[in-house]
Write a structure and sequence with these properties.
The termini are far apart. Helix content is 24%, strand content 32%. It folds into two domains: 8-132, Rossmann fold, CATH 3.40.50; 142-217, Thiamin pyrophosphokinase, thiamin-binding domain (Jelly Rolls), CATH 2.60.120.320. It is globular. The chain is of the alpha/beta class and 221 residues long. The protein has six helices and 14 strands. The protein has a ten-stranded mixed sheet with strand order 4-3-2-1-5-6-7-14-9-12, sandwiched between helices.
Length: 221
């Protein structure tokens, strides 16, 4: 395992990510941790994790045999999800940049739970979640990021979010509020980079649509 000054990757048990996308983020990663059944995806992709962690009820027998030399930590605690167990372990090891794959798709309740974990643990580390369609990041009180002009972004409030200010988006927010079930900010567009988002109060997630997903929605290959 490399120094925690590098980033770490978690492979969860949701819909498998594109192998090329995952491999790109593994190039200089300090650690690959599989959350329970994420090990099945690692086995199919020919990847060897540094650790398998969770209640280990989703791992196939052939995966167990393949990774017989890999450390597996079985934690039966039902008060935390397998993803949370992986996040806790990496944060305790000192990693402050964690990238999650395979956390969406499959059961909707699991996906929602994973989004909740993203927000919960982002107070301790910079955590992003990636899939075929793009990436999701916790905004915190202030987030600045670079993005190609035309990138589609959405702001997803998990709680009442107040005092939101954005710069660099087509439809700017100026000291405005967003709340789930009342008002969201979806399909906004980057018109100036870097983009800056400030939030006075609340839990806000940023979703950025990938170029490949944008092309699919336009009917391009």
């Amino acid at each position: 395992m490399a120094s925690p000054t590098s980033h770490a990757v978690i492979l969860a048990n949701g819909y498998p990510p594109p192998k090329g996308l995952l491999s790109k983020h593994l190039t200089d990663a300090g650690s690959l941790v599989c959350a329970d059944g994420g090990a099945n995806t690692a086995a199919r992709f020919g990847l060897t994790p540094d650790l398998i962690i969770g209640d280990l009820d989703s791992i196939l027998q052939q995966t167990i045999k393949k990774f017989s030399g890999v450390t597996a930590r079985r934690i039966a605690d039902q008060n935390s999800t397998d993803l949370e167990k992986a996040l806790t372990w990496l944060i305790r090891k000192g990693f402050r940049d964690i990238r999650i794959f395979g956390a969406t798709g499959g059961r909707l309740d699991h996906t929602i739970g994973n989004l909740s974990a993203l927000a919960k643990y982002s107070r301790k580390a910079r955590i992003s979640m990636y899939d075929l369609d793009g990436d999701i990041t916790y905004v915190g009180s202030d987030l600045t990021f670079e993005a190609p002009l035309g990138t589609i972004v959405s702001l997803l409030p998990l709680t009442l979010c107040e005092g939101i200010i954005t710069r660099g988006l087509k439809w700017e927010l100026k000291y405005e509020s967003l709340a789930l079930g009342q008002r969201e900010s979806t399909s906004n567009v980057v018109v100036k980079s870097p983009v800056d988002i400030k939030v006075r109060r609340g839990t806000l997630l940023l979703f950025r649509l990938s170029e490949a997903a944008a092309n699919r929605s336009r009917g391009k290959v």
